[in-house]
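One such shown below:

_____
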Amino acid sequence: MTNTKVQSILEKVGILLFLLPTLILMGIYIVYPIIMSFWLSFYEWDGISPKKEFVKFKNWSALFTDSVFWHSLTNNIKIIILSLLIQIPLAILIAVIIDRGGKKFDIFKSLFYLPMLMSSVAIGVLFKYVYDPQFGLISAILNLLHLENFAKDWLGDPSIALYSVIAVICWQYIPFYMIFFIAAISNIPQELYEAAKIDGATQTQYFWKIEIPLLLPSIKTACILSLIGSLKYFDLIYVMTEGGPAGATELMATYMYKNAFASFKMGYGSTIASAMFIIITTAGIIAYFATRQKEA
């Protein structure tokens, strides 16, 4: 065996040893739970008793006819659509404004990023008080402006509860995409801006004709991240509404949690979790290949 082959083998062994801790952790905390979820989806189990009853596809049959699950999936889709329509455009706009402002606007990067530094639980508790119909900040501002007629039970009215929560989700995640797009804009060569300026292009023309086309790969990546995140969203909505009122803000993740850990139907909860995995993986793959085809 030549020295080149020995060196190649040693390099591969070294790479494997460096990756081994990560692979072990991924196996324990990601791969194993996914496999267990699919396995438990074929059983009826309360999550406590050592006895599990094998029910074949009973849980899956129930899932396909479960109106609450399909309603929760519809709510997830609403979050996807509104997140894409609100988070991505506003994040691009803020990123462009901060980039145009130069160093004197650097302070706004930190200020606007503050929501991302807060935990979702803290944000949920905070906005429960903000939305309080009696003593909340929104009601106080409306009363101050003599617009009491516009005051609503923001989290208690089924017709607007989901949209009230979506507003908070956007407030929390716009800063993430803002930083993402600021980084992408900083990679655009300054010479392009100077050349466009010499040619007489306005700021608006430069934005639409040069900046946006060059940001398209980043925009597509951001859209995929938003898509996947919206399908598995849980914490903030559970803190603010627990899926209520009357299931108006129920999501797949909150419905899964209630079945598995509140109603002690671990088998059915695992079925919902497995369905979530299939839906999210499928949506992510379709989005990935759709963007690749467009780029080609």
Observations:
- The radius of gyration is 24 Å.
- Residues 173 and 251 are 18 Å apart (CA to CA).
- The mean pLDDT is 90.
- Residues 3-40 form the longest helix (38 residues).
